[in-house]
Amino acid sequence: MLDQFGIKSALNRLGIEEENKGTCTGDIWIETKETYLGSFSPADGELIAKVQLTDKQSYELVVKQAQEAYKHWRNVAAPQRGEVVRQIGNALREVKSDLGKLVSYEMGKSYQEGLGEVQEMIDICDFAVGLSRQLYGLTMHSERPGHRMYEQWHPIGIVGIISAFNFPVAVWSWNSMIAMVCGDVCIWKPSEKAPLSGVACQHIIAKVLKENNLPEGISSLIIGDYKVGEYLSHDTRIPLVSATGSTRMGKLVAQAVGGRLGRSLLELGGNNAIIISENADLDIAIRGALFGAVGTAGQRCTSTRRLIIQDSVYEEVKSRLVSAYGKLVIGNPLDEKNHVGPLIDTDAVKMYQDAISKAKVEGGKELVVGGVLEGKGFESGCYVKPCIIEAENHFEMVQHETFAPILYLMKYSELEDAIAMQNGVPQGLSSAIMTLNMREAERFLSASGSDCGIANVNIGTSGAEIGGAFGGEKETGGGRESGSDAWKAYMRRQTNTINYSDSLPLAQGIKFDI
Ligand code: NAD
């Protein structure tokens, strides 16, 4: 398989060898005392390559180097930092197809989605370049005569980035490209399920940093599982930890970082619903629901997990969806004729099977039957059939995020009830309504509408653009990344008051004369 689809040559061009070091401060790769972690492709079960884990000693070197680099980087003018990020964006353009291929092969998303992920990295670089000239603070009028008051934004220091397997490269760039223009330095721990994508990104960025004569430590890589993640969350030298992954992980990271009064930026699990009203354009609704539910084999934080359908269109939506599911082609994600690739590993397959069984025990009715695919092309054991279950919102399995292509269908009669169902889960990431009725759309978007960080009209729940702030409420963690003013999370705010008068009046008119 490595030779098929040009994987071997892509790996070569990305600097991936059979055995790779995993700890890097920029261009210098550090040998550790740890073992090598194998990265296996869920597409065919083959070992792609190995990466050496980071140990505590090498982690210490990385942090020390980052501290040194920060002293330099924070004083580089922000637009010059933007210039470096511009070059990173260009370097990514050159390797778009190779990196997209690696992401697809290592993580299992389709090649098109792999390319999309790299495009997202390029887009965030462009955004960050513009931002580097716009890190605006406000000025305000002082109540004291002859005084000027304003606020400015300074870099915060070292940003620890912990990322999930399903967006193995884009999530890093959302954080690091913004953090870099803000004047921060970054230490990235990619998912242990997609470490090679991290190694490849480090090679790409190292070249640019070197060409600009920048010191080691501006953007570093560490590799490992939760134990290496804990190095970051417990480290008082890391003022901000940005963590993307499950709610379970986020609660642990939040406790560790909060316990030392550090800042955490959390991007956690979702349980996203689309409301399909009787006023929907059903062609759009079906297409939006289909991509949302089966795209990336249901392994997006924004994947559509629940469809809340108005009584009068329920049967039609149901039969059209069942027929569309019948046309899905499941197979190797690098083969562009396939719609659905594998789950990340066999543990994920087990969770998918358990969720289906439990939902059925709770009373769910399987409309499109799921199951694990076997035989030629499915040797990795990670391919499953997208399934549809008629269910109720209060079922334990419906309340829970299962990272797999399982779609729950439910009915409603009044919009208020549909919104209550949409909001009636612990998570609050993405939501959507399909309707051509302006009143319904605006009610959904109003303060008593969707409680999610993302609320769309006539668009599915997945596929956000980088220009908006991305993130969600409740158990999704409350963090915002990427566009809009999400950059503020990566900086510290300072309020400055300057007295240019010849006296010292006190605020609030307080008298203190001697
Ligand atoms: P995961 O929680 O298993 O792992 C995510 C990362 O956290 C990994 O790098 C892992 O090593 C690390 N980690 C785990 N426990 C840790 C701990 N105690 N301390 C420090 N680090 C720890 O998640 P996953 O299976 O890789 O990804 C799937 C999950 O991520 C889903 O819940 C999905 O919704 C969520 N996700 C959310 C977003 C978002 O933006 N909201 C984006 C992508 C994925």
TrEMBL record:
CDD domains xref list: ALDH_F7_AASADH (cd07130)
Residue intervals of the Aldehyde dehydrogenase domain: 29-495
Signal peptide: none
Active site annotation, chain numbering: 267
Gene3D superfamilies, sorted: Aldehyde Dehydrogenase, Chain A, domain 1 (3.40.605.10), Aldehyde Dehydrogenase, Chain A, domain 2 (3.40.309.10)
UniProt enzyme class: oxidoreductase
Keyword list, A-Z: NAD, Oxidoreductase
Organism superkingdom: Bacteria
E.C. designation(s): 1.2.1.3
Cross-referenced Pfam families: Aldedh (PF00171)
Family classification: Belongs to the aldehyde dehydrogenase family.
Assembly: Homotetramer.
Record's protein name: aldehyde dehydrogenase (NAD(+))
Gene name linked to the record: pcd
